[in-house]
Structure prediction request, 384 residues.
Amino acid sequence: MKDLRVAIFTGNYNHIRDGVSLTLNRLVAHLEKRNIPVIVYGPTCDEPAIEHNGEFVSVPSIPMPGRPEYRVTIGFPQEAQKRLREFDPTLIHIATPDLLGFRSMRFAQMNNIQVVSSYHTHFTSYLKYYNMEMLEILGWKYLSWFYSQCKHVYVPSASMADELREHQIDEGLRIWARGVYIDLFSPEKRSMEWRRKLGIEDDQVVVTFVSRLVWEKDLQTVVDTLKKLYPKYPNLKVMIVGDGPAKNELMHMMPQAVFTGFLSGEELATAYASSDIFFFPSDTETFGNVTLEAMSSGVPAVVADATGSKSLVEHGVNGLICPPKKTVLFAEAIGQLVESEETRKKMSEVARQKALPYSWDKVNDGLLSNYYEALAQPIPELKF
Prediction:
């Protein structure tokens, strides 16, 4: 069998700090630790948010209309292709089905290189936030064609795989879950002193939302749900962890909340563990990295009954699940936990136990096994 040499193509590797970029950077670090040659292609910007791992080759891109912090690739130039030929990959991993992804797929097909892909962003679920629902059918048709070209399609959860199957994407699906640093995100990081510094009283019940602050994360449901809770629970305190273009507007809408801004590392771990309830109503996730981090920190979660989150939270066991957008039901669920410290404690212990199998080394070693499986299989025929 050929030696494994991996080329990764992505729409985000270092210019925005999000779940995709962090997951891929962890993967590259893991491959290098396992002595697997790897190279990454994607867009970048003048001041990247991440100091990336591994060799990164930037390709031309433009700001996304209406969301300039994101970049849209516009080509795969000859110089970048020359470096790819020099690298001589035996496996091409496409993380984003954009123009760069399409061009890298054609490069692989013309050069008899095996292609795999991973499904990170639930693209079609974002259309409603831009009043573009009419494009959903076309979007699924393109995705169905694109992923049919790939030997494997790596999805983060069984629920995401089920949804792809509903849209005729059913060949080569493999689970590549997301991981968590279980030693970092631990109940032991809980700090009453840290809470006090933020003005949180010891008897207050802290409900925390962690995310990049963009409206696609269903921030409106966060606002509407918590507004219903304030009058009934004077001991409730809301903490918003994260940054993004919606932050200022959100601060205006939620003046009672504590806004920490962007946190990482030990500070983020302390924020999770020092919370009492984790609230994440977004229905656009393919997995829910923040939900897993909260679970690992021993925090019961109230989440949407949506792809990703429902693969992690078992209703009534380590958290509660509600239908998306149903603010009355979200408020009732959070209220149940605010009222019962005993329930929170029981769910906290189970949440931690459910998170333990998701160590990053175990997760990425599983992907590496899938890489070798794909490398040993015949290359699919070219489809137009």
